[in-house]
Write a structure and sequence with these properties.
Oligomer: single chain
Order of helices and strands: EHHEEEEHEEH
Radius of gyration: 21 Å
CATH architecture of the largest domain: Roll
CATH topology of the largest domain: PH-domain like
Distance between the termini: 20 Å
Amino acid sequence: MSEHSTNTVAPRLRPPAHQVSRRAIGYWAATAALLWIVLIGVQTVIVVTSDDPPAFLDVTLVISCVLAPLHLIVMPRWRYRVHRWEVTGEAVYTQAGWLKQEWRIAPVSRIQTVDIERDPFEQLFGLAKITVTTASAAGPLRIAGLAHGRALELADELTKTTQAVRGDAT
């Protein structure tokens, strides 16, 4: 047995306990709506201003007008049900996605940095995202849709927990 061995049990992948803020539903809907508005707007301008628009543009415009409201109703609520997070003394657990779902776990001993980000729309909705960079080839863990105050508390908690755990984060 090496001198670095411990009797602790390795964290196991499991559903995280906490949901993101309910305001994330509005944030996800608003950001998606902006993309749909741009797409439908461009299609509309081309169809209306072109002397002889290709027939497929009429079809894609109709499809976009049908898919947009469905997407805006289903996607934000689905993401809210899926997106979860949890921090324990041993690990950070995340679950994210809606069509493609991802579950991640990072031992606290592997955490290198903790960052908080807020784009302008997140600021409008009082939200933030935390990025936990680890010594992993899979990349950082992200917890999006947190209430800004909760994100600050979580970053502080992660910093304290990481400092208390012995390890080299590699």
